[in-house]
Amino acid sequence: MKRVAMCVLCIVFILMPYMTLADSNASNLKPAQDQPRPQSVDEKNGTSVIGTKLPLDIISTGSDQSGTLLSYKLKEELMASKLFTLTAAEKKKFVLHLQTQPEFSDRPSIASIYSIALVYQEDSGTLTYYLSQLQGQVHADGVAAEMQKILEWTYSKLKRYHYLLSD
Which member of 13, 95, 105, 126 lies 3.0 to 4.6 Å from 122 by CB, making a disulfide possible if both were Cys? Predict the structure, then answer.
């Protein structure tokens, strides 16, 4: 009888964490219609959730092949974007500092590594405010995918800091 009681007690203690985990997961589930849907672009008119295009400038350094292509593609995409406006004006704006270099110095055409610093700039005479950073690797074949990744990352960060543009 003691062995049976001990076995039942052991089983209860072993299975207790799984039962509480299943119970807590069931209480966290909500119907799909109640869950908020993340949206970065309004589906009706194609404008951003923020309401206006975000002023963004790209300052790039580096002379490697994939990094230079990434920089040009980013600027092209910004000119056609509904979320950003490419600006070099000396007014309130966000700036992406893109620095690239070959991943392997003896084989520069294989891939590039990049580092991005996102800053906020009031005007040319003031100190910029550091917001975030991103590092990555880009191949000549994967420039478009990496560009989309960078723009999505940038927009997610700028949604957080867009209040800096208000007067």
Answer: 126
